[in-house]
Design a protein that fits this description.
The protein is of the alpha/beta class. The chain folds into 2 domains: 229 residues, Rossmann fold; 155 residues, Glycogen Phosphorylase B (Rossmann fold, 3-Layer(aba) Sandwich). The chain has 14 helices and 14 strands. The radius of gyration is 21 Å and the shape is globular.
C-alpha cells in the first residue's frame, strides 16, 4: 500500500480550505492508499486567524480536524517536514489544492516608504517563495519521491513584476515536481512565466467539485443541518460587511423572495457574523460540514467568496456571485478581472450572467429584482450537466495523479 502525504491549507479557519483538504483525503482513502495530511502550521498565518476568528468558531474548526483528518505531528520548518516524510516512509507528496502557489515579488512587496518587514502589510510566509508549498523541503530528502501540484492557484500573484533572480529560483523549484495542474487561467500564466514558456499546466477542478463522491453519504445528509430548523425552501444571502449591499437592497430582495414563497437566510463567515433583516440569521459557530450542507440544500446562493460558488456548481444550486477579487491597475485604475478565480470560473462555463465584481470603478449593485430573477430562472439543466462534467473532470485528474504515484 502506497503512503501519501498531503500538504495544503488544512488548518486555517476557512470552510472551503477545510473541505477541499477533506475531499482529497477521502479520495485517496477510498482508493486504497495510506494517507496523512502533513501538519505544517505557519505560525504567522495561524496567529492571524486566531486573532481574527471568534474562539467558539475556532474550536469548531479544531474539532473538525480531530474528527476528519489523519494528521502527522505538527511541522513548523522544512526540517520538520522532511523528518515527518521520512519517519512516515511516504511514497509521494500531493500539494494542493487551494492558493498554495502564491508569490508576491520583491518589487510588489517593497515600497520606499515602508519597512522591509513587509509581512506587517498583510502577507504571510505561505505568500512568499520559497516555502513548503513550493517544495522548499524537497532537496533535503534522502530519498526523492514524486511531488505533485494538484489544482493549485497563484491567486493574486503579479508575476509580471518578478525579478530575473526570483524567476530562476522559481524555475528550479518547479523542476522538482513530477506533475503539475492548476485551478485557473491566471495560475496557468504564472507557471508559463516562471518556466520561461516551457510549461503550460492543464486547468483542473477544485477537489470540492468531487466532494459528494468522495465523502460518506452521512456527511452530505440533510440531517446534518436539522438543528438550524431551516425553512423547506430558502435562498442564502452571505456578504462580508465591507462588500454588503444596502439595507434597502436587502429589503427589496427579501420581498421578491417572499412573493414566490421562498425564505431568506443569512450565512456567516468564520471571522464575522452576517446579521441581516431576513427570515433566519444563522449564528456562529458552524462546522465546515454544516456550512456545506446549508448551501447544498438551498434553492440559491447570493454573496461573496469562491467556495460557495464551487459548492453551488457541484450541487446544481443557482447562484449569483458578488466578487471582490481582482487587482486595480496602477495607471488606468481599472480592475483586472483575469486574476479573479471566480471570474475565471464563471467565464469558463458561460456563467457571467450570474457574476458581478464590487471592485469595479463607480460600482453599483445590480437591481435586487434582476439578481432574484437570475436565481429563480437559473438554467437548472445546464447546472446539472455542468455538475456532472466537473465530477468527471475531477475523476480524470485523480486518475492521472495516481498514475504518477504508481509509476
Amino acid at each position: 500500500m502506497k503512503k501519501i502525504g498531503i500538504l495544503t491549507y488544512h488548518s486555517v479557519y476557512n470552510f472551503g480550505a477545510n473541505l477541499q483538504a477533506l475531499s482529497t483525503l477521502c479520495y485517496f482513502r477510498n482508493h486504497g492508499y495510506d494517507v496523512k495530511i502533513i501538519n505544517w502550521r505557519p505560525r504567522d498565518l495561524l496567529k492571524n486567524y486566531a486573532e481574527s476568528t471568534p474562539v467558539k468558531q475556532a474550536k469548531v474548526h479544531e474539532t473538525f480536524y480531530e474528527c476528519f483528518f489523519d494528521l502527522t505531528e505538527i511541522c513548523y520548518t522544512d526540517e520538520d517536514i522532511v523528518r515527518v516524510i521520512e519517519k512516515e516512509s511516504m511514497d509521494a507528496i500531493v500539494i494542493g489544492s487551494d492558493a498554495v502557489c502564491r508569490h508576491f515579488p520583491f518589487l510588489v512587496r517593497w515600497r520606499p516608504s515602508r519597512t522591509y518587514k513587509f509581512l506587517k502589510n498583510g502577507l504571510f510566509s505561505p505568500d512568499i517563495f520559497p516555502n513548503p508549498y513550493w517544495g522548499s523541503f524537497y532537496t533535503r530528502l534522502d530519498k526523492k519521491i514524486p511531488m505533485i501540484l494538484m489544482s493549485v492557484s497563484s491567486q493574486g500573484t503579479l508575476y509580471q513584476y518578478t525579478l530575473w533572480r526570483e524567476r530562476k529560483q522559481l524555475l528550479k523549484a518547479i523542476n522538482n515536481f513530477s506533475f503539475i495542474t492548476v485551478r485557473d487561467s491566471w495560475t496557468q500564466k504564472v507557471f508559463k512565466c516562471f518556466s520561461y514558456g516551457k510549461l503550460l499546466p492543464n486547468i483542473t477542478p477544485d477537489p470540492v467539485l468531487g466532494f459528494n463522491v468522495n465523502v460518506s453519504q452521512e456527511i452530505v445528509s440533510k440531517n446534518i443541518i436539522k438543528r438550524f430548523n431551516l425553512p423547506e425552501k430558502y435562498i442564502i444571502l452571505s456578504f462580508k460587511r465591507k462588500y454588503a449591499p444596502s439595507e434597502d437592497w436587502i429589503k427589496k430582495f427579501f420581498y421578491c423572495c417572499n412573493e414566490k414563497g421562498l425564505a431568506v437566510i443569512s450565512l456567516p463567515y468564520p471571522q464575522e457574523e452576517n446579521s441581516l433583516n431576513v427570515d433566519v440569521n444563522i449564528s456562529l459557530p458552524i462546522s465546515p460540514i454544516e456550512w456545506y450542507n446549508i448551501i447544498k440544500y438551498s434553492v440559491g446562493y447570493v454573496g461573496n467568496n469562491m467556495h460557495p460558488i464551487i459548492v453551488s456548481i457541484h450541487n446544481a444550486v443557482p447562484f449569483f456571485s458578488f466578487d471582490y477579487y481582482g487587482y486595480t491597475k496602477l495607471v488606468t485604475r481599472k480592475v483586472c478581472l483575469e486574476c479573479s478565480k471566480i471570474y475565471d470560473l464563471c467565464q469558463k462555463f458561460d456563467l457571467l450572467d450570474y457574476y458581478s465584481n464590487v471592485q469595479m470603478r463607480n460600482y453599483q449593485f445590480p437591481n435586487p429584482e434582476v439578481v432574484f430573477d437570475r436565481i429563480y430562472n437559473f438554467d437548472k439543466e445546464k447546472a446539472i450537466f455542468l455538475a456532472k462534467k466537473r465530477v468527471n473532470d475531477y475523476k480524470d485528474l485523480m486518475c492521472d495523479i495516481e498514475k504518477v504515484i504508481n509509476e
